[in-house]
Request: fold
Amino acid sequence: MKRVDVPTDLLVNRTAGELLVLPDGVAHYITNVMRRQPGDALELFDGTGNQAVVEITSIDDDVTVEILQWREADKKESPLSTVLFQAIPKGKRWGWILEKATELGVRSIVPLHTERTVKRIPDDRVDDRLRRWDKKVSSAARQCGRALTPELSRPRTPGEAYEETPCDIHLVAHPGGDATGVVSALKKLDEIKRLGIWIGPEGGFTQQEVDNLTSEKDVRPVHLGPRILRADTAGIAALAIAQAIHGDFV
Ligand code: SAH
Reply:
């Protein structure tokens, strides 16, 4: 079905069965460019996630449509899309990270196999692990009321992960050195829609890994305070801070 973008607000708080008179620009596009007729169906989107399947009921001075199906934007999703690139830690900590990151609105999780990762998933076990991890994030998403389940990728090296998962900006958490605090780094950014947060394994990223990543212009090193956090605390803390500054804790 043809998808038509309409001004924000046209589809706010509607219900199926309602009639809508389309704004002039959209009406012109539908009749003169798309050459649609009464009885034709269209899908309308307003850019904030509200959408409606409609049928054209009349075309005269105005174009009127009837809403057949209407879907409200998912208010549970943050305007900040976050991607957590995290080295898989040992034991039960990974399951905990999946659950808490989901609650904090993470959009995508990329498990990392880094140089110092102790816990590596052999290739022939990856599908099985992904199924288990997916169950974990799906049930966490349900429990916290999200309709959207975070995406989970296969384990990746940092280089592969960077190439495959573009973000507006990436922050690599690395203790010490001359990194900026995560809060100052985030406050300096405006208009970020998709943020990558990178957390190393128990032994940390190697300096070489950090140098490789930060040689890209959209990757910056940050610190999370003077104490060394466990990997599972670090990812969750960084996600919460990001939601507080650019997401839906604001
Ligand atoms: N022994 C390691 C610490 C690993 S902590 C080292 O000294 O590098 C696991 C991961 O959590 C780190 O790789 C980093 O990504 C993150 N992390 C923990 N505490 C941090 C801090 N204070 N600042 C920045 N990153 C931190």
In short: The domain at 81-246 is CATH 3.40.1280.10 (Alpha/beta knot).
